[in-house]
Prior knowledge:
- The chain is 37% helix and 27% strand.
- The protein is an alpha/beta fold.
- The chain has a single domain, classed as Nucleotidyltransferase, domain 5, CATH 3.30.420.180.
- It has a 5-stranded mixed β-sheet.
- α1 links the parallel β1 and β2.
- It is globular.
Amino acid sequence: MIFVGLGFRQAVTIKSFENLIHQVYHLTELPGPIKALATLDTKALDPALQEFAAAKRITLIPVSLENLKRQITPTQSPAAQAAYGLGSIAEAAALFAAGNGSSLIFKRLVSDDKLATCAFAKGSFK
């Protein structure tokens, strides 16, 4: 199963999230359906994210900062590092949601409007 981690700025729109998914589907065919979206728990109530998850009928998993910091991310976002002390919210959230032994299919991708990032991990639901 595929788990999508998301990081984003406060000004994010549903189009930002749609653009990220569109980018991935143009790059490759995913090896399975998207099981869930995951992000930092304080961002999980964002209206654009809630609307996107509902429109796609995808479960949203809020993840604590403590659990995100336990994940080792291959990329390092200066913004995430400064604000949260971790390399990538998107990568950490995808890896956490996908569970132990998961791996990233896509490292952090940035939306065209620069308001959101995503990462895709393959694993099994906790």
